Amino acid sequence: MSRRRGARPWVEAGVFAAIAALILVDSGGYPKALPGGGPGPAFFPRLLGVMLLGCAAALVLRPLREAAGRKTDPKTTRRRTGRALLGMLWVAAFLAGAPFIPRLVALPLLVGGLMALAGERSPLLLAAVPLVFTALVEVGFVTLLGVPLP
Amino acid sequence: MKDRTCRFATGAGWVLALVVVVGAACGDRQEVAFPGRAIEIVSWATPGGPSDLLARALAAEAPPHFDGQRVTVSTRQGGAGAVGMQYLTRRAGDPHVLGVFTASGTVNIATGRIPFDPGDFTPILRIQVDPFLVAVRDESPFRTLNGLFEAATAAPGSVSVSGFGAASAHSLGFARLRGAAGSPDIRWIAYEGSGDAVVAALGGHTDAVHTNYNIVREHLRAGTMRVLATALPLHALPRTPSYADEGFDLTPAHWRGVVGPPDLPPALRDDLRRRLLATIETPGFREYMERAAMEYAVMDGPESFGAWMAGEVATSRELLAGLGLVGE
Amino acid sequence: MADFLSGLLSVLTPGSLLSILAGSVLGVFAGAVPGLSSTVGLALVLPVTFALDPAPALLMMISLYMAAEYGGSITAVAIGVPGSSPALATTFDGYPMTRRGEVGRALGISLFSSMSGGLLGTILLVAALAPLARAAIAFGPAEFFGLGVFGLAIVANLVGKDPLKGIVSALLGLTAFVVGLDVLTGAPRLTFGSSLLMDGLALVPMLIGFFAIAEALESIASGRRRTRRLAGAGSGFPRLRELLGLWPSILRGSAIGGLIGVIPGAGATIASIVAWNEERRVAKRPERFGQGEPAGIAAPEAANNACVGAAMIPLLALGIPGSASAAVLLGGLTVQGVAPGPLLMTERAGLVYALYAGFFIAVATMFAVGRLGIPLWVRVVAIRPAILMPMIVAVSLIGATALRGNPADAWAALFFGIIGFALLRRGYPLAPAVLGLILGPMIETNYRRALTLSSGSHAVFAENPICLILLVFGLLSFAAPMVRNRLGRQRATP
Predict the structure, then answer these.
(1) Looking at chain C from residue 134 to 193, which residues have their Cβ under 8 Å from any Cβ of chain A?
(2) B25 part of contact set with chain A, CB < 8 Å
């Protein structure tokens, strides 16, 4: 029974309501309407905001059904979500560092780090795959195709 | 496994080679001689579009006039041009990075969309204008520009004109024309691109299109569209009246030129200007101008191009304020 | 016919054939790498074509365009990440088939359907250039609005078990579209003063975020180290009989792709999703769609390749690019001194016929290049997710930056990756959000445009037959699954 109560999606409904509120507040500052009678730039965002608010309310108010898509054991889910968070931070660090760190250093670190987070343990692969990958990217993208990289 | 080792060795080789190249490139920066390395022309416009083609035509013709150095085009779109402009402003004093600046740039500056000013760049050379015109589809009842305005005055809101964007160089060009005609109630129907705006007029969804000559050239030749008037007299359309012939004393035009990063020493700026002037006189570049249906409009005085750009920003800002479109 | 043969002869030179081969190989590559697309591929070869004669230059570009539409399906099928946006619909049934261990079969169906769609689109181009160009310009704001609503109604078939969550996902996608400058007034919306958001959120970062980054985060979070099943009965190329048996789906998909591809601004992504939906609608057992149904691969792949030929129609006949890729092609044509428009057919007939002939050879080359690549992709699928996904993420981020040269796009991809991961975890489908981002501009901008032209009267939508039909069908297709669902539940629990 306690699982059922936990299934009420307060958090996501709150997030959606917050997005809706953001839209409604921001759209207050748009120019009013097009000259000539057409709806203005605020019309559509406001419609979206109201619908999103409605959906957020419906999410928490509707009768609970059998909880869908929660087959994983909550204990392991929690521990590994932390890992996924680390993954996000790792990618963010790569993007933040990209303008300052040479690509040839940053790219292998990105790939290797994500591999380690994904549970790859072989030291040989952890070293070789990122380096080979970086070399291939350098040759394929930069030298042959001339893709402009930051 | 052997394959993998082999690939790894190749990879390591590449890495080493690149480190050497990068090191060499960094070393170059201390040298005073220009051009000391490849020239990069930054374009913040859509690939394949008119600004991009100008950049590429320059890149194709420039090398002999830049001591044989490679000239590359890099596309840096985003933020209504802010991404490319920022890239350029960060290269202060470096004559190896140039940017293609257009009327859209000054309009976007005037709207406050991008946090730059013409003074943030070193103006080098205005190269071309891409003249505006008003065209209708062949079946249209309108024969003259004044006829279009009269119809709009007689029945306010009944006449629509499609064109690229709102608070854009195109919409402001038309706003100036409309203002000169006594501001009749004409609906400006903005489209995402000039081609879409032409389709709207061709399909009869709007009464006319305000666009550039090169976009409708083939339709004019084929007779599927008619031009009512052009902003400037065009040598390709000798019998078409200009706005002045129709009684409107203005010449709005889309223009494109080259700017450098900020803080270029005058000597380098003049050197660049001479090299670019030689580039745009080559037969290959002339051929591009002809094919793309652009008009030469060279403005190369040391100060004139910059002062003129500042004037464009001021004019655009006034127009935007008049239309109620200016952002703070 | 004689013109066509002389066109064919002019294409059968070593230079032209080499251009087609190079274009095809690059196209498959650009299509398959998430983040790169036919548009980026074309922009990359644009400077190369300057040095070539008009015919080889154009042939290289069209063969790249064509091959990229197939290339996108490779990653879509093999790892569930659409290599380019028109392959989105291919993930629906292609990836489940791969997870069953039938990657070779799925890729074979995709390749064969791409080839057939490409051929049929080319035939459409050759046979009906002028009339279809006239039909394309008849599409005005009201018609576009109708098409947008019709497309968005497909959300009803993408929502999964919980319609409310699907609708929320679509609303979030529509919200993402609002970010940027309003086309009609130039007013910045939801940009919060940042000039980086002025140009809006692009589709490619969303696809990369939702399908590559979110999936990589998911594989980190689940910690699975298992390899996907490989040695299934379908790991090889499918038999000819199976492929030929898919002809009704291929024909329907090509027809939809041809029709939608002609309309400037509609595009292959919409066409392939509509084709998938239509296939599901006519199927005897629609519940199998999304589980690895061959027709669910054949129809969208035929549609997006048929779009290539169809997109050439407004480009060649009117000089109007109907897609971002066609815009780059137009640039290439301009540089070559070829001005597409109503007179092209009379003034440059030789080049046009060479182009037609080149299209057929490009389709054949795409098939050969694709066929040779399949064993390689089958091996790629065998790589452990822990090794494969990090590389996919890295390549996608590079691709996202290459798209417009805008580093903000890579950040947007990460942003969408985090959102996608969170939504997936809470059981929200992601496809409706993508549909919302694609169709939002078509719906909103054209709704307002139509009302500006009609001085605010909604009668324009009812008086316009095409718009009315599309709106009614859209409403029906939105309501039908929900009604069926409700009826089914009532029957199940009397």
Answers:
(1) 161-162, 164, 167-168, 171-172, 174-175, 178, 182, 184-185, 187, 189-190, 192
(2) no
CATH no. of B39-128+254-323: 3.40.190.150
- Distance separating the N- and C-terminal Cα atoms of chain A: 53
Q: What is chain C's pLDDT, residue by residue, as a tens digit (494 residues)?
A: 677 788 888 888 898 999 999 999 999 999 998 888 888 889 888 888 888 888 899 999 999 999 999 999 999 998 889 988 899 999 999 999 988 888 889 999 999 999 999 999 999 999 988 889 888 888 999 999 999 999 999 888 887 778 889 999 999 999 999 999 898 888 889 988 888 888 888 888 999 999 999 988 988 887 665 555 555 555 678 888 889 889 999 999 999 999 999 988 778 999 999 999 999 988 888 888 989 999 999 999 999 999 999 999 999 999 988 888 998 999 889 888 888 999 998 888 888 999 999 999 999 999 999 999 988 888 888 888 888 889 999 988 888 887 677 888 899 999 999 999 999 888 899 999 999 999 999 999 999 999 999 888 889 999 999 999 999 998 888 887 777 766 766 655 44
- Cα–Cα distance for residue pair B97/B73, rounded to 1 Å: 10
Say if the Cβ atoms of A80 and C444 lie within 8 Å: no
**B188, containing H or E segment:** strand B186-191
- Chain C residues near residue A112 by CB distance under 8 angstroms: 390
**Residue B11 is nearest to which of A35, A37, A132, comparing CB atoms?**
A132
Task: In whole angstroms, give the CA distance from residue B127 to residue B299.
Answer: 7
3-state secondary structure of B91: coil
Residues 83-102 of B with CB under 8 A from C: 83-84
CA distance C49 to C19: 9
What is the C-alpha separation between C65 and C24, in angstroms, rounded? 8
Domain ranges of chain B: 39-128+254-323, 130-230
CATH architecture under which domain B130-230 falls: 3-Layer(aba) Sandwich (3.40)
Residue of B nearest to A35 (CA): B187
Whether ipTM exceeds 0.90: no
